[in-house]
Amino acid sequence: xxxxxxxxxxxxxxxxxxxxxxxxxxxxxxxxxxxxxxxxxxxxxxxxxxxxxxxxxxxxxxxxxxxxxxxxxxxxxxxxxxxxxxxxxxxxxxxxxxxxxxxxxxxxxxxxxxxxxxxxxxxxxxxxxxxxxxxxxxxxxxxxxxxxxxxxxxxxxxxxxxxxxxxxxxxxxxxxxxxxxxxxxxxxxxxxxxxxxxxxxxxxxxxxxxxxxxxxxxxxxxxxxxxxxxxxxxxxxxxxxxxxxxxxxxxxxxxxxxxxxxxxxxxxxxxxxxxxxxxxxxxxxxxxxxxxxxxxxxxxxxxxxxxxxxxxxxxxxxxxxxxxxxxxxxx
Amino acid sequence: xxxxxxxxxxxxxxxxxxxxxxxxxxxxxxxxxxxxxxxxxxxxxxxxxxxxxxxxxxxxxxxxxxxxxxxxxxxxxxxxxxxxxxxxxxxxxxxxxxxxxxxxxxxxxxxxxxxxxxxxxxxxxxxxxxxxxxxxxxxxxxxxxxxxxxx
Amino acid sequence: xxxxxxxxxxxxxxxxxxxxxxxxxxxxxxxxxxxxxxxxxxxxxxxxxxxxxxxxxxxxxxxxxxxxxxxxxxxxxxxxxxxxxxxxxxxxxxxxxxxxxxxxxxxxxxxxxxxxxxxxxxxxxxxxx
Lengths: 331, 151, 129
Fold this sequence. Notes:
Chain A is α/β, with parallel strands linked by helices. Chain A has helices at 45-63, 84-93, 106-120, 134-141, 196-215, 231-244, 258-262, 276-293, 310-314, and strands spanning 2-4, 10-18, 33-34, 73-77, 97-99, 125-132, 157-158, 161-168, 176-181, 185-186, 224-227, 255-257, 273-274, 298-306, 321-329. In chain A, the strands form three sheets. In chain A, strands 1, 9, 10, 11, 12, 14 and 15 form a seven-stranded mixed β-sheet that branches. In chain A, strands 3-2-8-6-4-5 form a six-stranded mixed β-sheet, sandwiched between helices. Chain A has a two-stranded parallel ribbon with strand order 7-13. In chain B, α2 packs across α3. Chain B is extended, with a radius of gyration of 21 Å. Chain C is an alpha/beta fold. Chain C has one domain (20-126). Chain C has helices spanning 3-16, 30-39, 69-83, 95-107, 111-126; strands at residues 21-24, 43-51, 54-61, 88-92. A four-stranded mixed β-sheet of chain C has the order 1-2-3-4, with helices on both faces. The longest helix of chain C has 16 residues, at 111-126. The N and C termini of chain C lie far apart (34 Å). Chains in contact: A-B, B-C.
C-alpha cells in the first residue's frame, strides 16, 4: 500500500484558479487567479468547468516556462459524469492524457500516478490535479442550483476551483514526494449524502494510520497532516477516532482540514468546503508555497473521496469512501 | 474502531437539527408568503371581476410569477435555506421547483432539456397530489353513500 | 420581518369599526331584515340592498364559520326564501359581493343602474372557476 519513491519526484509548480465565491476563502491570497465569472464567459457551467481546467494548466505552464509539447502526461479528473470537462480540456491541451476518478481524492491520486511515471523514467514533466465547479457538480449530485431546498448543518459546499501541479524529476529547491499511500475503499455504513464528512473520516483514518505504521513514523514527525475536504464535522470525527487509537490530544493540532478551513467560519457554507477542487486548490497553492518558504519541512496530504453517485444513494446503498496520501518534504 | 462504535461517535458529534427553531422560521416565512398571497387575492377581488371562489387561479399564477423572478435572481434558494418547509410548501415552492429545473436544463435545449426535465422535482408533487386527491374523494364518496357525512 | 403581519392586522381591524349591519334601499321592513340576520350567530357583517321586489343579502361570516361557508349560505338563503316568499332574495357570503354591495351603498347608485349591477353580481357569484 505504501510506495516509497527512490528518485523523489518534485513539485515544480502549482497552478490554481478559482471562482468568484472563492474570494471569500481564507486561502484566496495563495491562488493564482480568481475569476469573476463562474462560467468563465462560456455558455454552460460544464464549458466553464472545462475552461477553468484549461486556464489552470496554462497558468501552470506559463509559470514554469514550458509549453504543452514539453509535457509528457496530463493526469486529472473531476466529478461530472464521464469527466467530460477534464477530457475536453485534455483535447485543447493536446497532452497524452489519462483521466482518473477517485472523487475528491483525485487531487492526490493523480499526483501519485504522475510520481510513479516520473520514477519509472517515462515522464520528464507531467501535470496532475483535479477540479470542481459548484454549479455543474451540485446539479450532478443534488438539486438544480436555484432550487430552494434547506441544507442541513452537516452539508458541505462544493468549491469552484481547479488545482494542478507540475511534477518532474527531483530538484533540490522544490518540495519533493517521498512516499505515498494508496488507500483502500472503506465503508462504515454512512448513507447520508448531506453528511459526507462522516462517511469519509474513517477512510482518512485508515490511510493515515497505515501510512504512519508502514513508514514507521509518529504523528509528531510531521509538521502538518492536512486532509482534503472532511469539513468541520468530519475533522471532529477523525480526531475522535485518532484519540481513541492513542494519538495524544496535543498532537492533534498538527491535523488540519482544507475543507473545514476553506471558507473560514462562515455559516453560509455549513460544515465547510468540499469537492475535488477544494483539496487540489489548497494543496497546490498554499501548501507548496509554504513548503517552498520553509514554513513546513514534512507534510502529509490526505485527500478523501466519497465514491457515491446519485443513483447509488437513491437505491439505498451506503457511501464507500477512499483516501490517498502523499508525504511531501522540503530540504 | 468498529462500525458500531463509529456510528455512536458519529451520533454524538453530529449536531441535532434545531427542530423548534426550524419550525418557528418555517411558520413565519410560510405565514409571510401566505399573507402576500392573501393580499394578491384581495387585489384581484377588489380591482377585477373575481370572486373569492374565482380569485384563486390568478393568485396562484401571480405567486408563481413572483417565485420565478426570485428564482431567476437566485434569491429563492436563500429564502429556502432560511425558511425550509415554510417556503417549500406554498405554491411558490412548487414554482421554484419547476423554474429552477427549467433554468438548469436550458443548456440541453428546449425539448429534451427544459421540456424533459421541467417536472423533474415537481413531477412527484403533481403525481401524488392527484393520487391522494382521488383517494380522499373516494373515501368521502363512500362515507356520503353510507350516510355518515354529507357533501 | 414582522412588518407585513402588522400591516395586515391593521387592515383587518380597520374594517370592524364600521357599522356591522347595513340595510340599504327604500325603507321597507328594514328592522325586520336586520333582526333576521342578527339571529344567526355566525354572521359578522352584512349589507342588504333592497329594490323593487328584489333583495341582495351580502354577508360576511365569522372567521371559524367560514369553513362551512357554502352550507351556511344555503341555510340563510332558505331562511330568507321562507320569510319573504314573494321576494326574489339572493344571499351571498362572497367577499366580492359584499365589497360591491358596500360600494353601491356608498355611491348611491340610481335604480336603473342598480338593476344591471345586481344581475351582473349574481352572474359573477355563480361562476365556478
